[in-house]
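Entry 14. Ran structure prediction on the chain below.
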Amino acid sequence: MLKITVLVDNNALIGRYFLAEPGFSLWIECGGRKILFDAGYSGIFLRNARLMGIDAAAPDIVVLSHGHSDHTWGLSALISERTSRGLRGRPELVCHPGALGRKKLHGADAGMTIAPEVLESFFDLRPSREVLEIAEKLYWLGEIEQLVTPRGTLGEAMDESGEWRPDECLDDSALVYDGADGLVIITGCSHSGICNIVERAKRATGREKIADVIGGFHLRSGSDEEMRSVLSYFEKAAPQKIHACHCTCFAARAALAAKFAADEPGVSSVFEFK
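Output, structure tokens:
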């Protein structure tokens, strides 16, 4: 079984009194394991989770979809919460190695603010470019290749020599659940390309049927040019459902909803799969 609860998103649903921000965080329960997928931009994931009856400070695993600030800066609040409550143990922290480095967007720091050696004091670091099973039937997809659509660059990243270079966002990854009704693909921002991520999930599991794709699609203009290849690919992939959120603009969500079963997700949304 897989249960996903949205702790942080750009969107707070009408009639539900939670905080939203331009960030992303999910609480995932799978195979007896509790997983924090991204930590948002601030500490509001802890506050929202508390109101939902979830102790988001006590995950078994933390997964970082990539290293940008709107997905990682909430780690500081997580560390503070765990320290103040005297919580013992070090949750696993799964990410691409590149997620732990420095990044810039528009000249400002926009990457990990906690040094790896400090993170190691609080987490059992498991950086990986390879596919990993992190819970029963739930897999980390590692480094996403350019399989369907070309990938561009976004801002800058510091390389191992300390030089700034255009950031190809190779650290951007996702999760896939190999469920009874098909694959459930869980994305953060999809800088790797949403089509590349779905294709990687299909190849990693050897399955074609897709039950749902949940998360940020990094479609921010919704223009015909931006949407053409995505819609073409998804028509062939034929997902049963789509829940695009976070960095997916209204025009892109509308274009997807016109062709596929696409609901509006937001903070406090819950999705369950067998």
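The chain has a mean pLDDT of 96. Will compare against last week's run tomorrow.
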